[in-house]
């Protein structure tokens, strides 16, 4: 049952309604339309790492022959004044040590930057302040919370997300914080970097499943097809890893935040049509960590969910008696999962390997469950298309 906001009096404000609280059935919100103008050509939807990284750092990556980056989603710490999110940000900052070849080049945010509805005033507390000391660029794909509220009749929009992440030029946005707007070309885009190409998608505003073609608009699917085709044609000369990032997981054991079968079918169809089999999939949305290794046409592909960046929620999975690895349909095998856990991922890519490490971050309250340190690692052999996890 929907909770009514408390009546205001001189000491209390009305509690903001949670996005999604009225979802389902007749109250299902309208999907968010793709922001106008919707690009008609995928060529412009590229962000090159050199646009957002110092030349000296790019040189270090090239001479070290490897690229390191951070990734995690669901960071917006709306419930605790971003205290836990800040602890995670501090742990990420600690990865910027003296060895410059190990420094992450950027943070790829997997969506749900600000809860609950991308309110401009909440960006300061849930984004600019927690990452004020994070010493690298942050790029993002929007999650279901990164749009203004949508009702059954009136769709919301992505205006605030666009302002922060898809500006034409870096602009200061919040006084006292140096981080400017990011210059992504659109809400879905390809990040071209040494050793890796990351194709980022927008899976809309539902709690689930995710949606790539709101109101039947196929522009994003056309973008994905064009990018898969481009990557397939460039191989084997361009042997960089191809990673797909999408907020809603294509497959999950999450109870409240589950799979997106239509998106899985759509992406599988494009893999089939173009011949491009990505080397890894990254998602958030589920507030836990799940590592699936999928067998697909002779390839092993990791489908990773990492939605533990700071949002406080105990809406967790799962069947704690599940034995690993656990087999599911469509070739998915669950290699690892963590419930009631905070943390982020560190990904390292070179010519031959993509390595993912899930780094746990302890809870600010004393509690035995959350653990710190590297809790899970996996290696993708980019030539043989085999995955090992340990
Ligand atoms: Fe989400």
State the order of secondary-structure elements, H for helix, E for strand: EHEHEHEHEEHEHEEEEEEEEE
Query: Bound small molecules, which ones?
Result: fe (ii) ion
- The percent of residues in helical segments reads 10-25%
Looking at CATH, which topology would you report?
Purple Acid Phosphatase, chain A, domain 2
What count of domains describes the coordinates? 1
What's the number of extended β-strand segments?
16
Low-confidence stretches: 1-8, 18-25
Question: Features of this protein?
Answer:
globular; alpha/beta; binds fe (ii) ion; 24% strand; Purple Acid Phosphatase, chain A, domain 2; 390 residues
What is the topology?
Elements: E1 46-48, H1 55-64, E2 67-72, H2 83-93, E3 106-109, H3 120-128, E4 137-140, H4 159-165, E5 189-193, E6 196-201, H5 219-234, E7 241-246, H6 261-274, E8 280-283, E9 289-296, E10 299-306, E11 326-327, E12 332-338, E13 342-349, E14 353-361, E15 373-381, E16 386-389
Parallel strand pairs: 1-5, 2-3, 3-4, 6-7, 7-8, 8-10
Antiparallel strand pairs: 2-13, 5-6, 9-10, 9-12, 11-12, 13-14, 14-15, 15-16
Bound molecules: fe (ii) ion.
Residues 112, 143-145, 247, 285 line the site of fe (ii) ion.
């Amino acid at each position: 049952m929907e909770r009514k906001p408390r009546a205001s009096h001189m000491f209390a404000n009305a509690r903001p309604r949670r996005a999604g609280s009225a979802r389902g059935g007749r109250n299902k919100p309208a999907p968010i339309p793709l922001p106008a103008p919707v690009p008609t050509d995928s060529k412009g939807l590229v962000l090159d790492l050199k646009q957002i990284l110092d030349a000296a750092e790019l040189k270090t990556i090239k001479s070290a022959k490897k690229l390191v980056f951070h990734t995690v989603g669901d960071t917006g710490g709306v419930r605790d004044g971003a205290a836990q999110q800040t602890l995670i940000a501090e742990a990420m900052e600690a990865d910027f040590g003296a060895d410059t070849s190990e420094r992450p080049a950027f943070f790829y945010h997997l969506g749900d930057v600000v809860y609950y509805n991308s309110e401009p005033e909440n960006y300061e507390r849930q984004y600019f302040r927690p990452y004020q000391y994070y010493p690298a660029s942050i790029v993002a794909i929007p999650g279901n919370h990164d749009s203004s509220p949508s009702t059954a009749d009136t769709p919301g929009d992505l205006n605030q997300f666009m302002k922060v992440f898809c500006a034409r030029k870096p602009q200061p946005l919040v006084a006292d914080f140096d981080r400017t707007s990011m210059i992504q070309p659109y809400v879905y885009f390809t990040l071209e970097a040494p050793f890796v190409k990351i194709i980022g998608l927008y899976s809309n505003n539902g709690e689930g499943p995710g949606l790539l073609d709101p109101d039947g608009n196929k522009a994003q699917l056309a973008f994905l097809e064009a990018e898969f085709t481009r990557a397939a044609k460039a191989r084997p000369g361009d042997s960089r890893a191809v990673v797909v990032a999408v907020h809603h997981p294509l497959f999950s054991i999450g109870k409240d935040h589950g799979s997106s079968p239509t998106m899985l079918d759509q992406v599988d169809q494009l893999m089939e049509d173009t011949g491009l089999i990505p080397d890894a999939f990254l998602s958030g949305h589920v507030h836990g960590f799940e590592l699936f290794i999928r067998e697909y046409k002779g390839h092993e592909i990791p489908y990773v969910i990492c939605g533990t960046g700071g949002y406080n929620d105990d809406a967790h999975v799962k069947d704690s008696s599940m034995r690993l690895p656990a087999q599911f349909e469509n070739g998915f095998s669950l290699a690892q999962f963590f419930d009631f856990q905070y943390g982020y991922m560190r990904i390292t890519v070179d010519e031959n390997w993509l390595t993912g490490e899930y780094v746990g971050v302890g809870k600010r309250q004393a509690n035995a469950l959350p653990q710190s340190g590297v809790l899970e690692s996996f290696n993708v052999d980019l030539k043989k298309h085999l995955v090992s996890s340990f």
